[in-house]
C-alpha cells in the first residue's frame, strides 16, 4: 500500500497500475499493453474466486471487516480506484486484518474491488453476483479462455488437463522451455512464474520473442486490442447486464 500511496501522490497522469512479483515475465509489448489498458476503459481487472477458509485460521480477529474474496496476486487497478483505496479507513482495517492470514496479497484486490456495498470505491463490482455467474459457466471453460487478463493462470500440482513442462515448486509450476509455445499465444499480459535457476533459457527466449515483436512495425500496427472490450468487467461498466456477458471465451 505504501507504493500505491506514492503513485497516488504523483502529478504524472498515469492511468493503470499492475501489481507484479519478481518472477513474472511480460507476454505483451509496451505498446500492446497500453492499447489493452485503453480498452479496459478504467475498469478493475482481477480474478474472482472463493476465499479459502483455511487461510484465516491464524487470524487473531475472526470477524471479517467485509466479505473476503481470493484473486491472483497480479491485478490491474485504475488510478481512480487506487486514489480511493489509499484514503479509505476500511481498506486500512482490511489490511490490518489480513496481516494474520495466509497470502494476504491474494485476498486484497478483489475483496476491495468486489464489495461495493461495504466499500463503495470507483469502478467496484459485485463479486458475489459475478462469482455465481462464473460457477454457472465453468463447464464451458477451455484452455485458452479467461476473463482476467492480468496474469496467466497458475498451473498447480493438483491441476488436471494441464501439463507443467518445467517443475512444480511450492505447489505451482515454474515454467520451462516446453511451456513457451503455448505461452506465446496467451491473451494475458504476464506469465508467472519463471526462475533463473530452472531452465533459464525459458525466461530469456520468452523475453527475446516479446522484445522482437516490439520492433516489428507491422505487428504492432495491426494490434489494436479491440477484443478486450468484450471482457465482462468492461461490458458491464458500459451498461451491459450481468446475464448478457460471458466470462469464459477465447480472446486470442
From TrEMBL:
It is found in: Membrane. It comes from the Eukaryota. One of its GO terms (molecular function) is acetylglucosaminyltransferase activity. Pathway: Protein modification; protein glycosylation. The keyword Nucleotidyltransferase does not apply. Belongs to the glycosyltransferase 14 family. This is Uncharacterized protein. The lineage of its organism: Eukaryota, Metazoa, Ecdysozoa, Nematoda, Chromadorea.
